[in-house]
Structure formats: structure tokens, C-alpha cells
């Protein structure tokens, strides 16, 4: 039985990269809004083919086909639920706060943006635009040239366990993971029943345990190795044998 759940996790990212993420979110919203309003005007959701003909007629939209597909799915779901009913994106409270001049026009525009969404695909390691790197880092890759690391905050033990299981599932291409992303949070939606029995003892790719032996000391280190110019030291230590050697010499 499918048991869909959503993890909502706060993240941090550098200011300049956050501005770029905002551009993707805004363009995603542009596609969504145009499609949703077009459906309302036609009083029906168009077919995928006709929807993409319409999308190609739009100007100043740089998001690729993956984002367009997800915006189309998003718009169809909202239209199916609400039809031609009047909607206030961002919520009634936000709308009233703007009317009362409690928030600025720019703040209002930011807060009413829908999270960028990318529908999951198991064969693309869960999702073609997102990848869980560790239980505290998620990679957002909107294009081949642009990759952003989302540094997760406040990840408790329960979420860590689920994220570790999702790492294994994505590597085995077993589970679609749908992501949503706004300027504060990343949301992961998946079938929890698919990871309930996953053994989360991870075997991380490129992780190396190395030792250095000499007569008096044994040095050890754990490294994520990508090459001589690209590696990350995870942990290291030193075991002293000097006292044992000194004792043997005394004998």
C-alpha cells in the first residue's frame, strides 16, 4: 500500500546562488500561471501536446522541458481541483496584509510564488534535478552548467534515517522522489512504505579508509576521494606505539 509523506526541511545557500534559484522559481511560476490562466480561459485543461505548443509561444522563459512538464502537471492538478473558482495564491492572510500595507509590494510578490516543483522519476535516481548527497546536503542541478548545494538545517534523527534510506533508494533507482523548492525550504515527497525495510548501513561511493604505518605510530584517515585535487577529509586519528616499543627495548 502506497503511503505518501512529505519531508519539509529548511536550507541555506550563498546569497548570489539564492538569487539565481529565485530566477528559476520565478520562471517556473511564469509557466504555471500562464498555463493555469489559459486552462481557465478555455474552461478545460489542454492536452500535453497542445499545452507545449502554448508554452513555446511564451516569451522570456528559460526553464527547460523538465520544469515545463512539472509546471504543466502542477497547473492541471490545481485546475482539476478548483476549476474556474477564484483563487488567491499565497493565501488570504497574505492578500489582506498587502491591502493593509503591512508588507511591501516586493515582499508580497515573493511570498505568493509557488515552490518550484520537479516530479520524481525512479529511473533518474529518484529525480533528474535533485540528488541527496548526505543526510545534510541536497544537490539542485537545474542545468548541466549550474549545480547548487542546499545545506540542510535542523535535520533530526528521524529525518536523517529517512534521508539515508532515500540515498540507497536513489542509487538503486527504486523510488521516485518529487521535490519542491522555495527560498527557505526544500520538500521531498515519496512513498514511505518503500523505504521502511531499507538497511541504512550505507556503503558510500568513493569513501576510503587509509592507514600509514611506521615503527612508533599508526596514522589513519577516512576520506571521500574524487582525485588528488578534489577530496574531503571526514575523520583522522593517530595510534601511538611508542610506549610499547620503549618497553620492548627496555627488556
Characterize the structure shown:
This protein is an alpha+beta fold and 251 residues long. The protein contains 7 helices and 10 strands. The protein has helices at 15-42, 48-56, 65-82, 92-99, 105-111, 157-171, 242-250, and strands at residues 4-12, 116-118, 130-134, 137-140, 148-152, 178-181, 185-191, 207-213, 217-227, 230-240. It has a 7-stranded antiparallel beta sheet. The protein has a 3-stranded antiparallel beta sheet with strand order 8-9-10, with no helix packed on it. Helix 1 packs across helix 3. It is elongated. The model has no long low-confidence stretch (mean pLDDT 85).
Features:
251 residues, alpha+beta, 3-stranded antiparallel beta sheet
Average pLDDT number: 85
Tell me the overall shape: elongated
- List the secondary-structure elements in sequence, H or E: EHHHHHEEEEHEEEEEH
Based on CA atoms alone, the radius of gyration comes out at 24 Å
- Helical segment tally? 7
Largest sheet: 7 strands, antiparallel
For the biggest β-sheet, the strand order reads 2-6-7-1-5-4-3
What proportion of the residues is helical, as a percent range? 25-40%
Strands, count:
10
Distance between the termini: 70 Å
- The percentage of residues in β strands lies in 25-35%
Q: Report the uncertain regions.
A: none
Helix-and-strand structural type:
alpha+beta
Amino acid at each position: 500500500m502506497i503511503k505518501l509523506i512529505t519531508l519539509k526541511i529548511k536550507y541555506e545557500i550563498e546569497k548570489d546562488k539564492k538569487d539565481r534559484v529565485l530566477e528559476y522559481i520565478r520562471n517556473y511560476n511564469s509557466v504555471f500561471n500562464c498555463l493555469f490562466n489559459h486552462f481557465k480561459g478555455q474552461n478545460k485543461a489542454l492536452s500535453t501536446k497542445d499545452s507545449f505548443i502554448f508554452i513555446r509561444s511564451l516569451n522570456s522563459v528559460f526553464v527547460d522541458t523538465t520544469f515545463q512538464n512539472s509546471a504543466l502537471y502542477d497547473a492541471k492538478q490545481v485546475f482539476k481541483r478548483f476549476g474556474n473558482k477564484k483563487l488567491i495564491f499565497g493565501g488570504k492572510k497574505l492578500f489582506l496584509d498587502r491591502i493593509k500595507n503591512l508588507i511591501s509590494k516586493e515582499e508580497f510578490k515573493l511570498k505568493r510564488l509557488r515552490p518550484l516543483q520537479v516530479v520524481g522519476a525512479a529511473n533518474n535516481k529518484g529525480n533528474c534535478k535533485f540528488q541527496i548527497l548526505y543526510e545534510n546536503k541536497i544537490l539542485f542541478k537545474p542545468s548541466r552548467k549550474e549545480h547548487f548545494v542546499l545545506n540542510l538545517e535542523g535535520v533530526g534523527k528521524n529525518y536523517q534515517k529517512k534521508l539515508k534510506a532515500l540515498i540507497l533508494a536513489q542509487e538503486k533507482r527504486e523510488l521516485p522522489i518529487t521535490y519542491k523548492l522555495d527560498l527557505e525550504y526544500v520538500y521531498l515527497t515519496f512513498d514511505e512504505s518503500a523505504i521502511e525495510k531499507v538497511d541504512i548501513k550505507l556503503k558510500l561511493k568513493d569513501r576510503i579508509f587509509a592507514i600509514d604505518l611506521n615503527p612508533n605510530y599508526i596514522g589513519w584517515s577516512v576520506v571521500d576521494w574524487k582525485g588528488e585535487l578534489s577530496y574531503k577529509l571526514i575523520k583522522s586519528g593517530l595510534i601511538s606505539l611508542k610506549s610499547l616499543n620503549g618497553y620492548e627495548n627496555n627488556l
